[in-house]
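Here is the promised in-class demo. Please do not try to memorize the tokens; focus on the logic of going from shape to residues.
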């Protein structure tokens, strides 16, 4: 890469740091700049937690929404696990034992991958992943530049996350660890804005446990809290990384990102089925009501929220465990 272009790209990213843009928006701009500058098929940042054996795609350019969801669903093995142990940039090309291995398959056929470690304060936090259709892409003399860009992206994420973490922590439900309503509502707004720009689906689900007060009165608050924790885990087990669940009082609110009405119904039915099995062991026997609706282009947030709340009320009127879609 021309050193002048490298400096120009770094300068443009740094300029955004002092702008009103969020760290997520700056990273999006940075990845697009890297993708264009190095003529990549794809460019992504993946945050990795080897202790919890988990990962999350922060942002990706060149990957479709459906592929991103499937990628999030992968187990912590193969490519992801190896990436968490990187000491320096790793080039994966023909002749490498990883080349086109099952655990390294991606949305687009590629000739070369480059994995660049991201770390801060002596701790590895993720990787910058690039793919190219050129078998000679990402030669060793470019590794230093890409490492600098990966370091810069890490600083942007770290700088932005400090304030975001304080806000997010204040929005957590302390009993279940789920997001609180304010954070969830802000995320709903962001996702609706996104659906207006990109052709993706968004569904909303409201969930309520029936007879919880009776359960609490009969069994005590300790067992009541344990029940809430169990139900929260059941709900989260049926969701993907992109979905956003929160709990407020006796209700759960879930954003199903990228899910159309039919796919969202399947998820709701799976949650209902799992809770029914769990409820068979509770005394008094609890039940679950679910209201579900899918966002319609150009409608107001308030309209969607009212529709799903109406659906939940109808589900509760039906009695027992029930799902109502509007």
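The designed amino acids, position by position:
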């Amino acid at each position: 890469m021309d050193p002048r272009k490298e400096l120009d790209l770094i300068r443009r990213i740094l300029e955004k740091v002092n702008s009103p843009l969020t760290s997520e928006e700056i990273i999006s701009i940075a990845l697009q700049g890297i993708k264009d500058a190095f003529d990549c098929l794809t460019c992504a940042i993946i945050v990795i937690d080897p202790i919890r054996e988990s990962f999350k795609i922060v942002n990706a350019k060149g990957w479709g929404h459906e592929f991103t969801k499937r990628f999030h669903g992968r187990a912590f093995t193969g490519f992801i696990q190896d990436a968490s142990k990187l000491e320096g940039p790793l080039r994966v090309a023909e002749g490498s034992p990883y080349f086109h291995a099952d655990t390294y398959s991606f949305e687009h056929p590629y000739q070369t991958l480059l994995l660049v470690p991201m770390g801060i304060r002596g701790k590895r936090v993720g990787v910058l992943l690039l793919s190219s259709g050129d078998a000679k892409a990402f030669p060793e003399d470019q590794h230093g530049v890409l490492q600098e860009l990966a370091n810069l992206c890490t600083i942007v994420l770290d700088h932005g996350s400090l304030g975001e973490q304080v806000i997010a922590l204040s929005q957590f439900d302390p009993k279940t660890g789920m997001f609180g309503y304010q954070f969830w509502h802000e995320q709903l707004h962001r996702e609706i804005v996104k659906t207006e720009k990109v052709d993706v689906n968004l569904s909303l689900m409201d969930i309520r446990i029936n007879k919880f007060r009776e359960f609490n009165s009969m069994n005590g608050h300790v067992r009541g809290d344990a029940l809430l924790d169990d139900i929260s885990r059941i709900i989260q087990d049926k969701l993907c990384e992109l979905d956003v669940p929160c709990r407020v009082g006796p209700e759960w609110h879930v954003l199903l990102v990228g899910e159309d009405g039919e796919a969202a119904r399947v998820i709701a039915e799976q949650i209902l089925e799992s809770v029914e099995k769990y409820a068979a062991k509770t005394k008094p026997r609890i039940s679950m009501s679910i209201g579900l609706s899918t966002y319609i282009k150009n409608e107001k947030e308030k309209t969607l929220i009212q529709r799903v709340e109406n659906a939940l009320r109808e589900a509760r009127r039906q009695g027992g465990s029930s799902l109502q879609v509007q």
